[in-house]
């Protein structure tokens, strides 16, 4: 395999690995907090004006002051339904739990049931609750008298995430099977033409069967809230009951009756505000408005999320590893911004939610890995001789100082070898610079092959001068290394010129060994090795000479 083909294969493998990690991270949902932050940030600025399809009749503090302590006798709700029927409303969601008989008498339940039949367009909630502590949940329906009079029933299961915020909901739910529509869906289902077809949302796997005691849900969507709490118009329950609200304000509209009075029912955090909570009636109004105008936000299926994130990371990493890749920060920053912008466009134009955080985080990690790799490469290049790939003078000076300090502390011997290429200028002039460079690389390989230990360092000073640092090495050990280098150089038999058998390139090596003390400096080692090298040159070259300080 050619080096270029191997390089392409390695780049492709790295890109596939990055894509696979992005897919795993997406499926695991590890970045959900960042995704929700980005989602909330956008949704809070993506408000709309409701189309006056829904009105909230609020059981507020003023109504409690006028009508009396909660709960009220149910014949009061019967009067309310008659009022609404007279006004010509499209339908009523009576978002009240009516699971127990009226404490004031059964006749009040019968009066409410009769009023519901007269109106003929009333949806009531289904909730879940355990019969006793640690018991399986059961569905809680209105009392039989009232349930049989209701036109339709719907669940009021409000989905809360780990932060306690409601962002989404299930349009179908129930014990064992998801047979109950959401209350808002049940209400607009009184006019089948108003129901989205097909019903939006992420579906449960067809082969996944729920337990008879398990709350089973289907058709998950994210709610497109119209705005922060208070966006929908509402009228006081007591005002409607007293005839103080014009019938024209109610005619032809869907009505949600719910409790908004302080402390009676829970309220919920939404993406539309940080601290202001939304009561259940306005939550239902948002869902009705969303369904009526096809504003439900459907998350991409996890598989498609993973595939899209993997494809984007594969392309990004493949681009990053291309040899001609330039301006990485600008390019990858633009890619991350494009990912976020693409997510927003999908949301705005298609009501589809693609969580971008995993892709953005993986792009950032890929850039960080690229940057670390290049910093290491640049650092390595800064300490290497580009021709021979041995350490350069900068690297040599740093290691020599470090090893000298270590030897002082441990009182261990160390040796320094200075190596000069004999007749290199003549060889270079005779054979050419290209041949000279090739010879220097061959000599560097010979020298490096004998600096085998992790702390040994072979370096090139520049030109035809080399050096080897040998920590923890006595005179005899340094001599063996020098002799092995000389023997390999002789075997290389680097000759030049024509017809002269003795025109051969050789090496001269100067060795210096000592046990460094407090007065031993780098210059001490260098001068000792240089003096030995001078003697090797004077004594005929192609040899080693050694010097020492003390008994080593």
Structure, described:
The protein is α/β, with parallel strands linked by helices. It contains 18 helices and 19 strands. Helix 4 (74-87) packs parallel to helix 5 (106-119). The longest helix is centred in the first third of the chain and has 26 residues, at 3-28.
**Largest sheet properties:** 7 strands, mixed
**Number of beta-strand segments:** 19
Q: Flag low-confidence runs.
A: none
Oligomer: single chain
Considering DSSP H and I runs of 4 or more, what fraction of the residues is helical?
Answer: 40-55%
Rg (C-alpha, Å): 42 Å
How much of the sequence is in beta strands? 15-25%
What coarse outline follows from CA principal-axis ratios?
Answer: rod-shaped
The number of helical segments is 18
Specify the structural class: alpha/beta
C-alpha termini separation: 50 Å
**Kindly state the mean pLDDT as a whole number?**
89
What's this model, at a glance?
With about 550 residues, the protein is an alpha/beta fold. Helix content is about 45%, strand content about 20%.
